[in-house]
Amino acid sequence: MQKQNRNSGFTLIEVMIASFIFIMILGVILNIYLSGSEVYENSKIQTDLQAQARMGSNSMVNELSNATKTTPPGGLTFPNILIPPAPGNNTITFYLPTYIMDVITLKPRVSINSTGIIAWNNTPIIYQFNSNQRTLVRVSNGVQTILARDVSSVQFINVSGTEISVVLALSKTTPKQRNITITLSSIIRLRN
User: Fold this and answer.
1) What angle do CA 184, 185, 187 make, to 5 degrees?
2) Could you read off the pLDDT of 4-13 as tens digits, one per residue?
3) Alpha carbon distance 156, 62 (integer Å)
4) pTM of the prediction?
5) Buried b vs exposed e over 139-176: b needs ≥16 C-beta within 10 Å?
6) CB within 10 Å: which end of the chain, N or C, has fewer?
């Protein structure tokens, strides 16, 4: 009968197999983490772009819905909305009615003269796309207000006598060089 010498511990082969399995599991976990991190970053950028697009679009819809395409009576001697033909249709110039404070409701309302004609403000409002800064800007009285950042294009399109289409596209590149683009289209019914 032979006496077997059993040393406690692992053989080199066992250690190498365990190390290989550990490294494979660690690689899978790292890959899942990196994928989740990229999805999170892309979602964060997409959400930011959507918020920028909504903010810019809402500002334009609120003001443009009070403008009119026709030359209104009561002061203005020029068309109320000017949109250059494509491809330069990334700018729009328009005028808004004059507002006064309603003494009963304490809310602003459109100023209407005694003959029922709306009083129009003679200060133009301009929405323009600044391609160098990738912004949508509102200009009035020489004051520029940024409505949206990361803008890749803006188009103002005459749809009908009472409607304008605004197509606003925003884009941003992720740290992994993936381009994310959001496009928001609005049809705005004008005051007529």
Assistant:
1) 150
2) 666 678 888 9
3) 15
4) 0.74
5) eeeeeeeebbbbbbbbbbeeeeeeebebbbbbbbeeee
6) N
